[in-house]
Model the fold of this input.
Amino acid sequence: MLAIRSTKCPVAFVGVAGALVVLVTAVHVFMVPILPASLDYFGARSSISHPKNVLPDVGVVDSRLRGRFPSDSYGAVAFRGAPWKAEIGRWLAGCHANSSSVDVTEAIGAKRCEKDCSGRGVCNYNLGECRCFHGYSGKGCEEVQKLECNLPSSPEWPVGLWIVSTCAAHCDKTRAMCFCGPGTKYPDRPVAEACGFKTILPAKRGDPKLTDWKTPDLENIFTTNSSKLGWCNVVPEDAYSSKVKFKEECDCKYDGLWGQFCETRVECSCVNQCSGHGHCRGGFCQCYSGYFGIDCSIPSAYSLAYDWPPWLQTPVNLPDLKILNSTTIDVKAVVQKKGHSYMYMICQLSLTVIFLKFQCVNRIYDDKNRTLWTQQLYGAQIALYESILASPHRTLNGDKADYFYVPVLDSCLITRSDDAPHLLLPRDLRRRSYNALEYYRMAYDHIAQLYPYWNRTSGRDHIWFFSWDEGACYAPKEIWKSMMLVHWGNTNTKHKNSTTAYWADNWDDIPLDKRGNHPCFDPRKDLVLPAWKEPNPGAIWLKLWARPRKNRTTLFYFNGNLGSAYEGGRPEDTYSMGIRQKLAAEFGSIPNKQGSLGRQHAADVTVTYLRTEKYYEELASSVFCGVLPGDGWSGRMEDSMLQGCIPVIIQDGIFLPYENVLNYNSFAVRIQEDDIPGLISTLRGLNDTQVEFMLGNVRQMWQRFFYRDSILLEAQRQKRLFSEEAPWSVEVSKLPDDDDAFATFIQVLHYKLYNDPWHQGLLQTKETRLPNICSRTS
Done:
């Protein structure tokens, strides 16, 4: 019988909706590129430049496949509608689809927990241990903790220095959240953030209101004055009909509540919405009996008689289900999986944070429990995580795992790291980047000390996601041999220091003994993933990605902050590394503060800072679209691809999504930063055949920059609840079944598994599941 050693996690980490799970993902796939002789990853200087091949030497296998899968004139080999770098495309075309299935033994737990966790936690049936909800502890979660909302008071700060949980009303000490409390008409109504404190009116017209965090506004919270009731006593119907006034700074900030006055309880946001085997409880899944895991997707021996999770695949060998309910011994189930990927949950690490709407998640729910997608920039972490958990590329068998995915969700942590008392560390230099580094390091400490998998490869088969603006620049030195998933592939060959203009994210001052001296991105081993983009039903219905060239009347388009020369522009010269400012100085199509247009402005070139509701339409009306950085990565690459526009990348030494695996020559243009003045001349110099070829590739592969799999998981959940399908669900469900961001990620991992030199020793002990022609060990 296979025994997967696990242990209760002693360290707290931030996670989605207040919980972080360290998932160890097993995928029978891997790829590690090698550095070219030159460190100039983007080749010799030219107006249009593309990265050289930075992948490992796979000449033996590649030579066997070259005759069957020759490269085209752009140096690409097509696989499933996308142009890949030649040796990768050949391997995927010849080997990926030919991998055979393999039997995997899954251990299904049967260890019960003390007191069934008292209804205050989830039982891990593999360990027989409870994962208690925030505010509770003990073997059976029987102990109630006291979590203060406020830091210690002082004469200057009556309720303590400001933090996100600062409370001038009633503190719920099991959650460190602020409510109206006993004695008010609505005791469960939140009094979040500025609601409980005096407002400082602006000194001059147009300036914003400020909050006086030193002075509680008890009158406007608790008063029963009939002309202007305190927030805690306002009847919603009276306020909506304008019968009474109330403090405008108060609103419904906590997730799971709806309406101006939080009068309606709605679904909270949880990972995979608990997979139908539990209910979302303030960001945590409270699993039904017999299920566990961060999303209640792991069965126990007691639940198998009633349900078999789809991600586990159909078992080929299972004990008699009639006796499972009475067993106390772990069950071994043999399941058949496609040979190229598995995933394994190693440990759960949890910590509740004050969970405000729109933070850390890519969706919330309205008063009808309908999905509302958010524009959360960092939502890709959640989308990828949910796809992994619901995927057949996951296993409970760590010994069969090829990779271990560790989802420390920095998108959840950084947004609160400078104002949440249970996150802020005394050694953090007041840098959010340093704070995040410390949490990744604690995750490493736990994994390396308590599990056997890290040491067998020095962590090379572990995968970490750094979604923040500059990616893995602040990764602790201990984990740098692992694979990093980022949105920002800065190799530091040109931009050697922190590029953000926001001081709290700057990583330059992090001590070398913590960070080491690694670059932000190593194309030999790391991968840039697309950023999150919400499903836009109108854009999908109109098929903006498929709009032909004759309907694209704008030659070049860029819309975004252009710096201090323009109204509302970022004042820092270092913003966007000065690139947006250079572009606007040459081609600005709207007057700056001095009333001047760009030196080379043209009628068919749009470079503007003015926001527009027709942004997607304007992208889809353009042939070329600018992909420029912000405080690190921006979502312009995804915007371009999803609207069928050829990306024009202006950021030297920085990899874009999949750029070390896909053949960017086939669908994108690179312009050196110093060559910005010649940008439009270069674009006009491309012939019609080249332009049509690139547009055709963008049309074929745009879904690889879109997290359709995660969106469809939510569509399926909503279809089970409602007879009428939402427009976004209708349109996404009608999309062709092309490979999306998650499918591309799996394909890259599969290639890496069989072509990464360090992995060859491990493959000797496993079934290759591939034809001999495809393995470097054959």
